[in-house]
Write a structure and sequence with these properties.
By secondary structure, the chain is mainly alpha-helical. 48% of the residues lie in helices and 0% in strands. The protein folds into two domains: 114 residues, no CATH class; 34 residues, no CATH class.
Length: 166
């Protein structure tokens, strides 16, 4: 289980690679699936995007993170998804509808084009619970200066000794 994007689920990556190679070598095995596109739906819905559906309320604050958080795991999942969708017009239509619905939902997007990037890292918190600074323009420069100043022992000591009068 990948708890954060830093965790790597190697057995899951191996399973995705194994299934991709199995489907590539024996394409007739696709016809034996009980529901033809159930694997495709699982890969999209649970492994890559994880949207709350089927009677559950969609939280406006944030969507749940997907099962695949590590970059390599997501790559292996996408490779398997490509193999499952190969020569499967119904699956490609389902994938297109799913992605179109996911992208057009506005509760998790802003109108700025620069915010239109899907990353798992945005939904993570460190083990301490701190989340860092929201970049609204030049925050990265201010943050880097603060980090540099904090590495000066006398400056750091002076900052940490400031009393909170409130």
């Amino acid at each position: 289980m990948e708890i954060s994007a830093r965790d790597e689920d190697v057995p899951l990556q191996g399973l995705f690679t194994f299934l991709k190679n199995l489907l590539a070598k024996y394409p007739d095995i696709r016809e034996t699936f009980p529901e033809k596109n159930s694997l495709l739906y699982f890969l999209i819905h649970d492994c890559l995007f994880h949207k709350e559906t089927r009677g559950q309320l969609i939280q406006k604050a944030k969507a749940m993170p997907p099962k695949c958080k590590h970059t390599t795991t997501r790559e292996r999942c996408l490779e398997l998804l490509g193999e499952v969708a190969r020569e499967n017009p119904d699956g490609v239509q389902m994938l297109t509808r799913y992605l179109k619905t996911h992208i057009t939902e506005t509760f998790w997007r802003t109108p700025r084009k620069t915010d239109w990037q899907i990353t798992v890292h945005q939904q993570e918190r460190s083990l301490t619970g701190f989340v860092g600074l929201k970049n609204i323009g030049c925050i990265c420069y201010m943050n880097s200066i603060m980090q540099q100043l904090f590495m000066i022992p006398t400056f750091r000591k002076a900052i940490l000794e400031v009393e909170d009068t409130s």
